[in-house]
Amino acid sequence: MKRVILTSSSGVGLAHADRADMVVPFIFRFVSGPLPTSHHLEQYLTGGYVRGDPEVRWSDLVGRLPQTGLAHKETGLIWFCETYGVDLIELWFDPEPNSQLQLIWTLDYLRSHPSITDRLRLRRVNFDLRGADGTELRDRMVRELEVADCDFEIANMAWEAYRAPTPELCFGLLGRDFPRLPFLKPAMEQLLAELPSPITGLGTTEARLLDLIARGHNRTKELFQPDGPLQTRVFDQWELGPLLEGLGSGPMPVITGLDPKLATLAPHDARGRNAAFRRSRLSLTEFGEAVLEGREDFRRQNPIRRWWGGTLLTNERLWRWDRQNHSLVAP
Q1: What tens digit of pLDDT does each residue of 23-40 get?
Q2: Is the torsion defined by CA of 321, 325, 327, 328 positive or negative?
Q3: What top-level branch of life does the organism fall under (predicted)?
Q4: What is the pTM of this model?
Q5: What are phi and psi of 308, to 5 degrees?
Q6: Domain at 3-171, CATH from 3.40.50, 3.10.28, 1.25.40, 3.30.160
Q7: What is the 3-state secondary structure (H, E, C) of 35-51?
Q8: Is residue 290 pLDDT above 90, yes or no?
Q9: Structural domain boundaries of the chain?
Q10: What is residue 252's three-state secondary structure?
Q11: Residue range 247-270: average pLDDT?
């Protein structure tokens, strides 16, 4: 039986767990920055290249296969599964918010390909794929479900909600139950909690960063490491840097001590930026202490232009999340 696993970047270790003939990790990060366009996502999965197009395709992350060699290169994912007689396509996406977003995007895409929907199986991964070792990934029992029509419908509804120009539809999802996709609603609430607070103007991760810096955790190496004290479930270490820079810039910064060279380095200069972050020694400003204590609102003193799903947050259109009352606050 030929088996393919579709997973997020958290599940790259499954490629060495002998659970499938091919493991395809999707690389998209949907939790920060503008969402990829529908055309971009389609091109990622259908394969093929346009001259001068530097974009990665799904097949670029899959090496030579014992049975088919490099036959998957520059082909569409669906075409490959149909042509090479794949019997089962398993979806392995853990509870992490970005992985859940990838799951609903994947299901939404696959629903329009009825030729393979009967080959789909949903694995209910209730643990962190990124933190699991090879033995655990190989031997752990993970419940398998057939993908039902209702799963496609929920995925379409949730994906369209996240892509919407306001977070209202996502907030509406919290009032519903999704027993077959049990990690979707918790992930959506974690994402909503990254909207600015109506009191401090900070999202959950921003507030946690300030709290840790106030407690003496002044080195970015410690703050950014995946198993460090921050314990963020939403952003990865590469997304924490811009978040931290946002707190240290603007008319009224809440932190100080970032290496000045960060302001001159290109966003894609990962090596230079990583070195600059490591040189930084962070502390709270007086204004930062007031924000952390809830006496000041960071967003009333500083500009914002940031994407949350399909929502562009600006000072004029600033949606907020009341964590105490679990409610969305309109601009």
Answers
A1: 999 989 999 999 999 988
A2: negative
A3: Bacteria
A4: 0.94
A5: -125, 100
A6: 3.40.50
A7: CCCHHHHHHHHHCCCCC
A8: yes
A9: 3-171, 206-303
A10: coil
A11: 92
